[in-house]
Amino acid sequence: MSGHVTLPDEQLAEQSSPGGVGVAVPSRGRVVARRFFGSWGGRAGFALLAVMFLAAFAGPLVYPWGYTDKDFTAFLTPPSPSHWFGTLQTGADVFAVTMRGMQKSLVVGLLAALVSTALAAIVGAFAGYFLGWTDRVLMWVADLLLVLPAFLILAVMSPLFAAGQWPLFVVMLALFLWMVTSKVVRGMTLSLKEREFILAARFMGVSPTRIVFRHVIPNLSSLLVVDATLNVSAAILTETGLSYFGFGIQPPDVSLGTLIADGSKTATYAPWTFWFAAGLLIVTVLAVNLIGDALRDAFDPSARRAR
Amino acid sequence: MAGFLARRLINYVALIVVATSLAYMLAASALDPRSNYEARRPPPPPAVVDARLDELNLNNKTPVFQRYLRWSWSVLHGDFGKTTVGDPVNADLARRAGVTLRLILVGLIVGSVAGVLGGALAAVWQYGWFDRLTTAASFLVLAVPTVVLANMLIIGAVWFNDLVGAQIFLVSGETTPGLEGGFLRGAADRAQHLLLPTLSLSLGLIAVYSRYQRNMMLDVLGADFVRTARAKGLRRSTALTKHALRTALIPAVTYFAFTFGALIVGTTFTEKIFGWHGLGEQLINSIFTNDVNTVAAISCLAAFGVLVAALASDLMQAALDPRVRVG
Amino acid sequence: MSDPTHPGAPVLEVADLSVTFGSGPSAVRAVRGLNYEVRPGEVLGIVGESGSGKSVASMAVMGLLPPHARVSGSVKLLGTELLGASDKRLAAFRGRTISMVFQDPLSALTPVYRVGDQIAEALTVHQDLTRAEARKRAVELLDLVGIPHPAERATAFPHEFSGGMRQRAVIAMAIANDPDVIICDEPTTALDVTIQAQVLDVLRKAQRETGAAIVMITHDLGVVAGFVDRVLVMYAGRPVEIGSVDEVYYHPLMPYTMGLLGSVPRLDQGERGRLTPIDGNPPSPAALPPGCPFEPRCRLAVPECRLAEPPLRPVRHSRHLAACIRAGEIERGVVTTVPKLPEIPEEGEERPPRESRRVVLGVEDLVKHYPLTRGAVFKRRVGTVEAVAGVSFDLREGETLGLVGESGCGKTTTLMEILKLARPQGGRVVVLGRDISGLVAADRMSVRRDMQVVFQDPMSSLDPRMTVYDILAEPLRAHRVREPGPRVRDLLRLVGLEPEHAARYPQDFSGGQRQRIGIARALALEPRLVVLDEPVSALDVSIQAGVINLLEELKARLGLSYLFVAHDLSVVRHIADRVAVMYLGRIAEVGQVDRVYDTPMHPYTQALLSAVPLPDPVVERARRRILLEGDLPSPADPPSGCRFRTRCPLYKAIGETERLRCVHEEPRVRPMGGDHGAACHYAESLDVV
Description:
The complex is a heterotrimer of chains A (307), B (327) and C (689).
Chain A (H helix, E strand, L loop, with lengths): L1 H4 L3 H8 L11 H11 L1 H23 L31 H37 L1 H16 L2 H7 L9 H10 L3 H15 L2 H9 L3 H12 L1 H24 L11 H11 L5 H28 L8
Helix pairs in contact in A: 3-14, 4-5, 4-14, 5-6, 5-8, 5-9, 5-11, 5-12, 5-13, 5-14, 6-9, 10-11, 12-13, 12-14, 13-14
Chain B lengths: L1 H29 L3 H5 L7 H11 L7 H13 L12 H36 L4 H15 L2 H19 L18 H39 L2 H8 L4 H39 L4 H10 L3 H29 L7
Helix pairs in contact in B: 1-4, 1-12, 5-6, 5-8, 5-10, 6-8, 7-8, 7-10, 8-10, 9-10, 10-11, 10-12, 11-12
Chain C lengths: L11 E10 L6 E11 L4 E5 L6 H9 L6 E9 L2 E2 L5 H7 L4 E4 L13 H12 L4 H14 L5 H4 L9 H13 L5 E5 L7 H18 L2 E6 L2 H7 L2 E6 L2 E7 H6 L4 H9 L49 E2 L6 E2 L4 H6 L26 E16 L5 E17 L3 E5 L6 H10 L5 E6 L2 E2 L5 H10 E4 L13 H11 L6 H10 L16 H13 L5 E5 L7 H18 L2 E6 L2 H7 L2 E6 L2 E7 H6 L4 H9 L5 H6 L26 H5 L2 H9 L5 E2 L5 E2 L11
Parallel strand pairs in C: 3-8, 3-9, 6-7, 7-8, 15-20, 15-21, 18-19, 19-20
Antiparallel strand pairs in C: 1-2, 1-4, 4-5, 9-10, 10-12, 11-12, 13-14, 13-16, 16-17, 21-22, 22-24, 23-24
Helix pairs in contact in C: 3-4, 3-6, 4-6, 6-7, 14-16, 16-17
InterPro entries (chain B): MetI-like (IPR000515), MetI-like_sf (IPR035906)
Family (chain B): Belongs to the binding-protein-dependent transport system permease family.
Keywords (chain B): Cell membrane, Membrane, Transmembrane, Transmembrane helix, Transport
């Protein structure tokens, strides 16, 4: 959000100069933040996600067991003070591997959502603004990717993701997430294009590319922020599905998906191997969805609350 | 009209061809059928392996493009080639398609009907207990990945069966093999098998649809035409069902095309976890067995399915909305 | 308070009606104590600007407000209390005893059902009719409200109806069960003026047929003048004046009413002078000032006004009430609101004659066609819309040319074609001596610098994500002006805003202020020609007057030329030097404003001018309107020969042989003396205003 509320340098100069008196008007960013934190869902989602982040990244620093360590004195033991979430059949500590898995899931989800939303914004806005052949080509590519079974393609490519190649996995994940959003962005660009402030910029002589980046995309920012949030959960869910079947994050690395897959086999007699990973995953996705929903309301208060 | 339809069909065919070709190229270069033979003890002589792979058009020593040409030529004649063990892909997939179709259809109908109804009711009673309950439930369901949901259902079913001491929920396969008894017994058995997979497939769909339908319904609740309907003397409930819900169904139908892709993925997980021998299960198996031809064939079917869904949603939209019909 | 003209017990009595949205400190009191009653056959007008609570009040009477609105007071229909009644009970009254016509006909009908079925539904809800009987009656009703080929049109869907036809269908629905009261909420606001005249005529006819009382809610003082018996003026959720229409118009007692009447440009008054705007903006219903809510804007305010809100009380006699502590003084003529406004600096005196002035904008035989497609899912091309079919006019230095016409006449398309600066499909556009079809990129930028635009909607013409500073600096940056800061400050002062406003966002401004920002942006590059697309039509009258004054002042001070596109003929008469009337992609008549308005030659101009209601009850009642039949023909399939002949009253009056010429020969604009011209074979002057 901050990109739209910061003032250009010259304007700051203008405001601090003796001639121009800065008037304290709540900026849009601050209004949205106030509405966001004013809602129950926004507060709960933000708090949950913050706790998840803290646990995933700070937890391993203070916890005695590493995710590769094996405790050969404890195989498949229930939670205890020495192993908070119990141990696996291999003697690995469930808390350590779960936090490691959460790190991966969070990072993969956030990055994939960022990349896919940026892609969606640019493709959709250009297709909608320029129309003609630009539009036809871009939208055909989007259709093609919609028609390709994403899960299968990612699964087929899984050997490429082995051995620390997870950034490639993120890019591929993002490549299959942007299409629907880009179509929405295109549709909104079409109607935005008829709006008078865009026409005014055009008739002033502002260049088309500049109009897209300065007027079109900023005015879709609420949609894009909400969409990016929801893409985080979509990416995490896809990653889990792929890793569950062994097509995502590859050993020795772990993700929540691989942990859930392993845990589901022992779930009936050793519930801690399944439920901690599954529960934390659910809480994470729930938190992200709550944030997305609260953001949507915060950006567009007329949508629901006012009625 | 005819010209328009023809252009759209040509575009669809082009999309299927490009998508399937891409999937073939990718699978042919990334998967390694040779490893299936190398893993055998004792490993067969290389010449035998090469001959077998050549026969199946799976030899990675042949350039990908050459394999692609041979494959596409046979596809043009309606033959998707052979699996790694030499069975025809066509026959195998035809058998499995029925299983998947049954699962998808039931899941889709249950999911969309329950979702649309739940969403519409939630909107009408906005901020009432039903709305709060369905909102909370759908948030929870949307946070649970299908793989976790399916496993949770299985764990719950096993626990329940143990509790009552009877096999109420059956968690593996489509039917119990070698079941005795009449038609009724068979139907009950099928229903017992169907219950959990349908639930695992449609719960997510219900959640998505109810959220979407709730928003669509809220948009039309305040619409001028609903007000007009009430101003002419219709009771609120009548105006809402006859005028608001009917109009709010139109966008839900367009949304259908977008959910179809997700449904395919959901089916894949559900079949694999509940042991249904459908296309989804084969998709995952085929990647493990490096079965290039099956992967390409399933891609083709998936692309076809998505486009059929898109066309169906367009047709349904035209049926529901006089504004988009050709006048 | 018995009314001699409309005897009988009141059919609708509203007493102390209040509507509140929300609660606590953020509660919005939209209506704060409304009282009125209507008797059988009486027409009551409720006038007010946007936000005055007039529409909310009518929805409260119908019981159609959303559940979170808190309504108190009393609404009695034929003696029965409606407030607090169950939905079932109210539904029995709605549509049968009391019915309603809404503002926006485009969204008032359910898009998925046939029009005839929707009208039949209104009948079957209340009467025991078979489907066939209801359908038959629906067709009769469509015929009654003047829809041609009613049996055929009854099977059409709403999107196949024009706005005027949809509004007729809504009226048909409202009168279907012979109600006692019809509430009309801005029934003609969304319609063109000739269609407005038709719909008002239908409403009058409907009233005659049903004998119903009508509550007419509108912001248009002209519509009220000719249509109603009594008028109630609302401000900030309260009635501030109520009386017979003649008394309120000729002897207003409340300064707000006086201000409203003074700020309306008049179609029948040619003299140049400044309008008298009401200062400031209407108060937000969430933050009302203490005392009289009009006090901050009132020219007659005295310190006592701030003490308490004045009650509505009889002034002249028991039926003329006003809520002003100085109403007595106003009545006796002791005080008056007429302010002393500085005259606009005269420009006409030493101005050279028109012929010797430079042509700033020349348009010759401009043509713009675009494909007509049908269907959203199965799109296909079904024809060609001839949006602009050979339009010619010129605009000289220091002049304002008004381009008027109803929606669909091609005025906006003409304007867009000029602004695009691309080679037109046909004809020539010359801006400041340069033909736009031959421009290279650098030339195009320099033409853009000289020609700027102000748009209609102040909500959408400013990017909501940019500060006012960025908005005003954008044209300067696009044309590589260094250091836009000082210029932005000057611009804000020029349009009557403070330089401190630069740091704010458009959402912090009222509609009138936003339009001033839009004007400032257009002036940033010191253009010579400003194109104005309906610049005041989205504003309330009291605000509109201020913006019109600003435009006139800027033109005189900066020596600008204006191309002023508008549908409001009164505004154009006020601001323009010359006027061009468009019909279906062509110019029907063009000339000096006073000549065209006083002696219109083209039958379309005559009908158009006669359709504009005047805010003057006596004049308005005496006027004869030329009612045009039907709707605008589709621009995809215009009539042969003269495009207006299908609706032309003159065409009907002439003989068969003369008609042949209209059918086969396209009339060109021919001179009618001076630079006055009309595109009619048989043009003759007629006094219509």
